[in-house]
UniProtKB/TrEMBL annotation:
The keyword DNA-binding applies. One of its GO terms (molecular function) is DNA binding. It comes from the Bacteria. It comes from Streptomyces genisteinicus. This is Helix-turn-helix domain-containing protein. The lineage of its organism: Bacteria, Bacillati, Actinomycetota, Actinomycetes, Kitasatosporales.
């Protein structure tokens, strides 16, 4: 079975809906047209055939280009007229029209002749971009005017880049993209009956990269034992035959000289497959040496296979590039690389020249391998990690069996990891595992393996590999051994294993740049006073740092110290450094830290923006664990904003990975988000059930660090639900943690928790303390929650005017930070007090937020000193603001101010 043979199309909901809309339009009368664009193998033909078979309202024709007529793929207007007359369904090559392409008017006339036939007509034209220029123009002309032809529809399939061609400009279009993981997995299950083990399944999905035709061809190629995991998969998994069958159809029609030039372009790109393309000058020099004229490039561009952009030539479709290189005979590939090597000159091109020579070499060549490895390992070499991975892996292939071969594969794996190529890195590690090696080389390999597993795999396994790496590297490379231990700390932290965090950092003597290890070890042992000095030094040194990994560590240090502004600053710098220094692997992690820091700062919209970008790049980089953390952040933001559906969607996505991979941090944040969503909707009892397992002492399912951050939510939910039994002890435990100063919001949250639990006589002071501390800490969301709870407390005691003032402040805070569900809850409370819910009105709109707070306090009868204590400012500041309030409102006394505030805030609905 092929992808085109399957009647079911996976992952094409949007595209199928667009086609269905066109077909429904034809059934109801008006005509229409749609262009379907996509690269080879993505299912353009399948979508057209699906439309043809599913159109039951009248005749449907599927016309395909005829590759058997050189230079003469003309749209057969005469043949088309006869087909229209006979209602014949055509599946196969279109009849050739010997008199040349039809004029646009002829085509419109042919299609328009169907208007009186009494039933609609669908004409599907596959590979419409392969017709000659005149026929393409006629098709585009007809498609743009199809709306005038009642009951006539045109569905045109074109290559991805051709959708922007002038011939098809103005025609509605839909682009086919590679399938996402879910859709590709569903197709694989259909092809294999769901029998693939996880490892084989992952290999197939990665190799196919969302291309349904390639995924189908790969499964067709494999034997039953290979598909079931009993026998190893062939290497390469997608060989030249498979790639040519899926993507190489257009290559057979090119002149030999164009084929040679394309092979040179593909061979040049082998050094950096994901780079900007091949050096045009290099390719043309090599082509000239082979006797290939420059016009061959024009022919290849005209065929839509490559395009020139500035000094670069690149394939539009990466799959086609692979097909050109892998589908050529080995002798031709070697010749192409030899030509490229001979065309490179100078010291600056030493590595690419050596690498092309190595690509052209036959069999082991230890001498060439040694030279290539030495040049690729030179500290002053300017080359990308992807190119270095290719160079060192080729050096390993040319090496004789032994420790040097293993070391080169291990080094290549590290560069592949840094280039954001985790699957390639794992392949190289597997090659390194096959040979003997020194402990230092084994340690390097385990460090790469552990880091890869931390990004996508069980974090417990990552921790084991990283601790082993540290022990193997310790006697030979103490600095990399420390890197292994710090990465092990990240794995244990992600897994919520406090004991493993401490064990991973313990038992090691002082070393270079050891402040981070020392500070984190002290913090983990609840000695934050000892941790401050070394962690501050980490942050200070980071100001002159450009290494993204160390900037991420410095950002983590800032979060541990409670320096949220510093964490945001360092996260932004880590992101910039990762983007600027060819370190794609760090971009998802930097975005994760930045999103989390913004979340801690209460800037939820910024956190969402960073997490959404992080989610995209994490998926592209194959970092499912990092993606789970981004999903958890997005779930939390959705809970703040009140989008219950998004909370569940992102929390479920986070848990789908967090569960099997042991990501306690992501799982806790996702569950916290669910509880916060319940709390925002007033479902206190449900929130208690969510928060309880995350914060209760003893055996917990929560993360040891996030427990403290979530504990105020648990106390609030428990009090609102009437379940106070555990709250007093929890608050006192929280007080010990808040005293360490690790979270700027903790002091205000502690006062809020005590206000919720205190007797009436003592609660007022706690509410005032909480609001004063919020003024120092900042953050609209947390301050809004305190104001809302205080307003509820005041309303229950029939202090309605005071309650309205606090609730209006809460409403403003929630509206500013986008916490819509909390704003709705606040409006409901305001209505219960008899107050208007539209916010400040009339003259009060002239006041600044601080002036408005002071005016309300004075209207409540507070003296200047009492206002100062309540707002945590000086009496002189209150006096200054109050004079400005009197001037802005045109009042001359506190009594007039009180009356004006009362009228403005209660006039709409007196209470």
């Amino acid at each position: 079975m092929t992808a085109q043979d399957s009647l079911r199309l996976y992952g094409r909901t949007t595209e199928l809906a667009d086609v269905a809309a066109l077909l429904e339009r034809l059934r109801s009368g008006p005509g229409g047209a749609l262009v379907v664009a996509g690269d080879p193998g993505l299912g353009r033909s399948a979508l057209l055939e699906h439309a043809t078979r599913g159109f039951g309202a009248g005749p449907a024709l599927l016309v395909r280009a005829d590759p058997g007529e050189p230079g003469g793929r003309h749209l057969p207007s005469g043949g088309l007229r006869s087909m229209l007359a006979s209602h014949t369904r055509v599946l196969g090559p279109a009849p050739r029209f010997p008199d040349g392409p039809p004029e646009p008017a002829e085509l419109l006339d042919a299609l328009g002749s169907r208007r009186g036939a009494g039933e609609p007509l669908l004409v599907c034209v596959d590979d419409a971009d392969l017709w000659d220029a005149g026929s393409r123009a006629a098709l585009g002309f007809a498609a743009r005017r199809a709306g005038r032809l009642r009951g006539v529809g045109l569905l045109l399939a074109v290559a991805g880049r051709r959708v922007d061609s002038p011939e098809f400009a103005g025609v509605p279009s839909v682009r086919l993209r590679p399938l996402d993981d879910v859709a590709a997995g569903a197709l694989l299950d259909e092809l294999t009956g769901g029998s693939c083990p996880a490892a084989v399944r992952e290999e197939l999905l990665h190799e196919a990269a969302g291309n349904p035709a390639l995924l189908t061809a790969l499964t067709d190629r494999l034997t039953v034992p290979q598909l079931s995991g009993v026998e190893p998969l062939p290497r390469p998994l997608a060989d030249g035959d498979v790639l040519m069958r899926v993507a190489g159809g257009r290559l057979a029609e090119l002149a030999p000289e164009s084929g040679t030039l394309l092979l040179l372009v593909a061979a040049a790109q082998e050094l950096a497959p994901d780079g900007p393309g091949a050096d045009a000058a290099l390719v043309l020099r090599a082509a000239a040496a082979a006797g290939v004229p420059a016009r061959a490039l024009d022919q290849a561009e005209a065929a839509g296979i490559v395009r020139s952009a500035g000094s670069r030539i690149r394939f539009d479709d990466p799959l086609l590039r692979r097909a050109v290189h892998a589908g050529a005979p080995l002798s031709r590939r070697r010749t192409a690389h030899s030509l490229l090597a001979a065309a490179l000159h100078g010291v600056r091109h030493r590595l690419p020249r050596l690498l092309h020579r190595a690509m052209a070499a036959q069999g082991p060549d230890p001498r060439l391998a040694a030279v290539l490895a030495a040049v690729a390992s030179a500290p002053d070499l300017r080359a990308g990690h992807g190119e270095l991975a290719v160079a060192l892996s080729r050096a390993g292939e040319l090496s004789a069996a032994g420790s040097a071969r293993t070391a080169r594969f291990a080094a290549a794996a590290e560069h592949a990891r840094l280039a954001g190529l985790p699957h390639r890195a794992r392949e190289l590690l597997a090659a390194a595992d096959e040979g003997p090696a020194h402990d230092a080389v084994r340690g390097s390999a385990e460090l790469v393996r552990g880091t890869l597993t931390l990004q996508d795999g069980p974090v417990g396994d990552a921790y084991g590999s990283l601790v082993l790496a540290a022990s193997l590297l310790g006697p030979y490379d103490p600095e990399r051994a420390l890197v292994a231990r710090l990465t092990a700390l990240a794995a244990a932290w992600s897994g919520g294993d406090l004991a493993a965090c401490v064990a991973g950092l313990s038992g090691v003597g002082p070393g270079p740049a050891d402040d981070y290890r020392t500070g984190m070890l002290a913090a983990l042992n609840a000695r934050l006073d000892e941790a401050r000095a070394p962690l501050r030094r980490v942050m200070e040194r980071a100001e002159a740092e450009s290494d993204p990994e160390r900037l991420v560590q410095a950002g983590s240090a800032a979060l541990v110290l409670g320096n949220i502004a510093g964490a945001c600053h360092l996260g932004a710098r880590a992101l910039a450094a990762a983007r600027a220094h060819d370190a794609a692997v760090y971009v998802p992690r930097a975005l994760e830290q930045l999103a989390y820091a913004e979340l801690r700062a209460g800037r939820h919209s910024r956190a969402r923006a960073h997490a959404e970008e992080g989610l995209r790049v994490a998926h592209r980089a194959g970092q499912r664990n990092t993606a789970a953390h981004h999903h958890a952040v997005l779930a939390f933001v959705a809970a703040v904003e009140g989008d219950a559906a998004a909370v569940e969607r992102h929390a479920d996505a986070a848990m789908a990975v967090a569960g099997p991979h042991g990501l306690a941090q992501a799982a806790t944040l996702a569950e916290w988000a669910r509880g916060l969503g319940d709390l925002g909707r007033g479902l206190a009892a449900e929130a208690v059930a969510r928060f309880g397992p995350l914060v209760r002492p003893g055996h917990r399912t929560g993360h040891f660090a996030l427990r403290w951050l979530a504990l105020p939510c648990f106390v609030e939910a428990a009090v609102l639900a009437g379940e106070r039994d555990e709250t007093a002890a929890a608050v006192e435990e929280f007080a010990l943690w808040a005293a360490q100063g690790a979270d700027p919001q903790a002091s205000a949250q502690l006062a809020r928790c005590r206000a919720l639990l205190a007797p009436v006589a003592a609660a007022e002071e706690h509410w005032a303390q909480a609001l004063a501390r919020h003024e120092l800490a900042g953050g609209d969301f947390e301050r809004g929650r305190t104001l809302l709870l205080y307003g509820k407390w005041l309303r229950r005691r029939r202090r309605l005017r005071e309650a309205r003032g606090r609730l209006r402040d809460a409403l403003c805070a929630f509206e500013r930070c986008g916490a819509l569900v909390w704003a709705d809850q606040t409006r409901a409370e305001l209505r219960a007090t008899g107050g208007a819910t539209g916010g400040s009105a009339g003259p009060l709109e002239r006041l600044t937020p601080q002036q408005l707070r002071i005016a309300r306090c004075v209207a409540d009868g507070a003296t200047n000193r009492e206002v100062a204590l309540r707002l945590s400012v000086s009496p002189r500041t209150v006096d200054h603001h109050l004079r400005n309030v009197f001037a802005a409102l045109g009042v001359r006394s506190r009594v007039e101010l009180s009356r004006l505030v009362d009228r403005a805030e209660t006039g709409a609905a007196p209470g």
